[in-house]
Amino acid sequence: MQRAIDIFYKFLELLLILLLAGMAVMVFLNVVLRYGFNSGLNVSDELSRYFFVWVTFIGAVVAFREHSHVGVETLVMMFGRKGRIVCMILSNIIIIAVSAIFFWGTWKQSPINASMVAPVTKLPMIWVYGVGFFTGAGVVLIALERLLRLLTGRVTEEEIAAFAGENMSIEQLAERSQ
Fold this sequence. Notes:
By secondary structure, this protein is mainly α. It has two domains: 1-66; 70-178. It has helices at residues 2-37, 42-65, 73-76, 81-115, 126-129, 131-151, 157-164, 170-177. The mean pLDDT is 88. Residues 23-152 form the Tripartite ATP-independent periplasmic transporters DctQ component domain.
């Protein structure tokens, strides 16, 4: 099962690379066309914006899985093992609640987004904003799995250290604080 999950996340990373590359190519091509030939592709403006939305929301799930989001390590480092576990449990409960609200909001907004179309591509806007389903569900599932492992005592010392920021070098900590 873990192998399938790892393959899925490798696919997401590849998708992020393709979306970012597509966005860069479209914007570069449009700049060259506008300044060099006094023309442009309207579709590239629109699609590059949508790619940016998708990169942001898909990247949020990947970053959450890799513990790459901003944390408050300064506070958590002051606690012992039990205090850190309590903080991990509370943060995962909050993350589940917020992500579930985000999913629900996307669900409530989806009929409107499905009925609206993009001005140039005529793409239904649910294809743009529907990525909220993926992000909300993805973060909830990851946080639920973490919460379950915390409550059953299957959390590793490495995960607790990562949560407290203890597994990072001085350079990595300085980079995160900028």
